Amino acid sequence: MKSRKWDYFILILSWLIAVTFIFAGVGKIINPEKFAVDIDNYRMLPYLFVTITAVVLPWLEVLCGLVLIFGKWKKGAALILLALSFIFFVAISSAMIRGLDISCGCFAVSSEAIKIGYTRLVEDVILFGAILLIYLKILRTPH
Question: Which residues of the chain fall short of a pLDDT of 50?
Answer without folding.
Answer: none
